[in-house]
Amino acid sequence: MLKIALIAHDRKKDEMVNFVTAYEHVFEGHKLYGTGTTAQRIMDGTKLDVHRFMSGPLGGDQQIGALVAENEMDFIIFLRDPLMAQPHEPDIIALLRLCDVQGIPCATNVATAELLVRALDRGDFGWRELVHKYKPGIE
Ligand SMILES: O=C(CO)COP(=O)(O)O
């Protein structure tokens, strides 16, 4: 069971809910986290349970970033809106930077997300189980 973060900007939320619905059978085997509004939308639209952090502009990206910094988060789907400025742009950049620091798979569009979720379903994320096995973690 991996830890997966799901984040979507407002104009990408419908796409996120549709995507998670399509792959609900894959996501249900994992522990899900999300920024406040995205997590709520996914819970309203599916049977999945998603741990809700703060909304993105209020610090949710940073809360998820903290788990990435600890090498606790295994996979991130972050459907950013590339055509609209966000008040918390520095938080968004910081989260993506931390994914690169730790080498965490992070999909920022649904085409990449689909490839990675299919890889997850095939068992290609087994190396993350090893990371957790050899690293004392937090719950
Ligand atoms: O702003 C976000 C990510 O940067 C998403 O936050 P919400 O899911 O609360 O809308």
Describe this entry's structure for a reader.
By secondary structure, the protein is an alpha/beta fold. The protein has one domain (3-83, 111-133): Methylglyoxal synthase-like domain (Rossmann fold, 3-Layer(aba) Sandwich). The protein has seven helices and five strands, in the order βααβαβαβαβαα. The protein has a five-stranded parallel β-sheet, with helices on both faces. Helix 1 (13-22) packs across helix 3 (36-45) and helix 4 runs parallel beside helix 5 (89-102). The chain is globular and about 40 Å long. The model has no long low-confidence stretch (mean pLDDT 96). Keywords: Lyase. GO terms for molecular function: methylglyoxal synthase activity. The active site is at 61 (proton donor/acceptor).
Layout of helices and strands, plus pairs?
Blueprint lengths: L2 E6 L4 H10 L1 H4 L3 E4 L1 H10 L4 E3 L7 H10 L5 E5 L9 H14 L3 E2 L2 H13 L3 H8 L6
The site of 1,3-dihydroxyacetonephosphate has 12 residues, from helix 3 and helix 4.
